[in-house]
Amino acid sequence: MDVLGIDIGGSGIKGAVVDCDNGALLTERKRIPTPEPATPDNVADVVQQLVQEFAWKGLIGCGFPAVVHNGVAWSAANIDPQWVGVNVADLIQKHTQQKTYVLNDADAAGIAEMRLGAGLGKNGTVLVLTFGTGIGSAVFVDGKLFPNTEFGHIEIRGKDAEKRTSDYARQKKELSWEKYALRLQEYIEKMEQLISPDHIIFGGGMIKYWDSFSMLIHARAEIYPAKLQNLAGIIGAAIYAQELEAKP
Ligand code: BGC
What we know:
This protein is an alpha/beta fold and about 250 residues long. The chain has 8 helices and 15 strands. The strands form 4 sheets. Strands 1, 2, 3, 4, 5 and 8 form a 6-stranded mixed beta sheet that branches. It has a 5-stranded mixed beta sheet with strand order 11-10-9-14-15. Strands 6-7 form a two-stranded antiparallel sheet. The two termini are about 15 Å apart. Bound molecules: beta-D-glucopyranose.
């Protein structure tokens, strides 16, 4: 089944049509900068613009950077506070006239990595972390997602972890890889204390620098770079929509 996958992020809104049987992209990936302010109507307009550019008629799966419960945003850490309480799925459906399913962006990326990327065939507890504007997390136990874990917001040294350890924080503070790796290591150890994962997959925008920092970090779990790079969010959102649609 073909589904339009959308990934709403703090700096860009990305989309492509995905063949959910094999995760292949059937169109190019298009990106439109996230509007400012990123209010619900402004963002939904951009999603509508993407739908028009693809001349898309059909199912939409959308990753969104917040806690998403049955389509409704329950938090707004790196997005406009007006989103809290908004039914994101209904809003996009209203703007695009196409049936839409919405989930947390890191959960979407995690689904793609588990089905087609670095998590393929991995059982036990798999923790997928995305490092970008914030830190996103997705947890799978024997392949099944435990949604909305929000581990980017655990407290480290009295601060929200993503404020110290996201890729945005690394860039803003101009941290060397050595300095940044110390923060990352502290974060990994805290996560291992909390959930003792068997595998940790590192993803998000930062993953393109894997060779600059992977030798500086260690874990009891097996660690891997994400395979699907910046397409994971789009592909995972599409797969999620297809799976929900197929449910009786
Ligand atoms: C949000 C998460 C999101 C992550 C990555 C965090 O600030 O709370 O919901 O998954 O950023 O975008």
